[in-house]
Amino acid sequence: MEYTDEDAETQIESDDTDEAWVMSHSSRVSGPIEEIAASMDEDEDEEAEAEAEAQAAIRAMERLQLQDQLRAAAEDEDPDDDDIPDMDDIPDMDDYDNLEEEEDPATLAPAATESNPGDKILSVRTYDVFITYDKYYQTPRMWLFGYDEHRRPLVSSQIFEDVSQDYAKKTVTIETHPHLNMSLASIHPCRHGAVMKKIIEKVANDESKEETTVRVDQYLIIFLKFMSSVVPTIDYDNTISA
């Protein structure tokens, strides 16, 4: 234990009695209460810091011990070479002669189904519709390629069954498409060309309407409505998107 000047002791005599008492640390200089309180706070901070360091060291030691335990457990679980089975000793499917694998219903090919006359789904003919522009008559021209209920191409006689008898084999004939290089049923524009011209002139001369110009989509709707009278068995979508 180190002895300093601040540890000096002084004997104090009492005036009333012959007794005396000893004052320790008599050489220390007294300071204000603020300095004393600050000194005490510093001591408490140092103690708290030392305690935190001690706790951190304890936790580090615990982690090291846990890692050692896990490493030892892993080493105990490592199989010996004698415990590893030989690949030649493992049974194989070829070792069984009468082994039959059960069929998985999910992997079976779907069975071919035939159309039942009692089904509620109505099979109808369908058509591919092509529209070209005829420069001579200056009007659209419609071409048709049909399929039966089983998606087989229609022959000419079957197509004429769906055409109005007023136009069949007159304005509706089988001709070569100008771009597809195949024979299709065509509605000749010799009749509807003049009709379409009259419709456009009537709309253009209608002074009661502010907008007298006919847009392309509107013109095609008028054309399809006229074509519906030639081939009434085809359903047309005459709606115009906004």
From TrEMBL:
<feature type="region of interest" description="Disordered">
    <location>
        <begin position="67"/>
        <end position="118"/>
    </location>
</feature>
<dbReference type="GO" id="GO:0019776">
    <property type="term" value="F:Atg8-family ligase activity"/>
</dbReference>
<dbReference type="GO" id="GO:0044804">
    <property type="term" value="P:nucleophagy"/>
</dbReference>
<keyword id="KW-0653">Protein transport</keyword>
<feature type="region of interest" description="Disordered">
    <location>
        <begin position="1"/>
        <end position="54"/>
    </location>
</feature>
<dbReference type="GO" id="GO:0000045">
    <property type="term" value="P:autophagosome assembly"/>
</dbReference>
<dbReference type="InterPro" id="IPR007135">
    <property type="entry name" value="Atg3/Atg10"/>
</dbReference>
<keyword id="KW-0833">Ubl conjugation pathway</keyword>
<keyword id="KW-0072">Autophagy</keyword>
<dbReference type="GO" id="GO:0005829">
    <property type="term" value="C:cytosol"/>
</dbReference>
<dbReference type="GO" id="GO:0061723">
    <property type="term" value="P:glycophagy"/>
</dbReference>
<feature type="compositionally biased region" description="Acidic residues">
    <location>
        <begin position="75"/>
        <end position="105"/>
    </location>
</feature>
<protein>
    <recommendedName>
        <fullName>Autophagy-related protein 3</fullName>
    </recommendedName>
</protein>
<dbReference type="GO" id="GO:0015031">
    <property type="term" value="P:protein transport"/>
</dbReference>
<feature type="compositionally biased region" description="Acidic residues">
    <location>
        <begin position="1"/>
        <end position="19"/>
    </location>
</feature>
<keyword id="KW-0813">Transport</keyword>
<dbReference type="GO" id="GO:0000407">
    <property type="term" value="C:phagophore assembly site"/>
</dbReference>
<keyword id="KW-0963">Cytoplasm</keyword>
<dbReference type="Pfam" id="PF03987">
    <property type="entry name" value="Autophagy_act_C"/>
</dbReference>
<feature type="compositionally biased region" description="Acidic residues">
    <location>
        <begin position="40"/>
        <end position="52"/>
    </location>
</feature>
<comment type="similarity">
    <text>Belongs to the ATG3 family.</text>
</comment>
<dbReference type="GO" id="GO:0000422">
    <property type="term" value="P:autophagy of mitochondrion"/>
</dbReference>
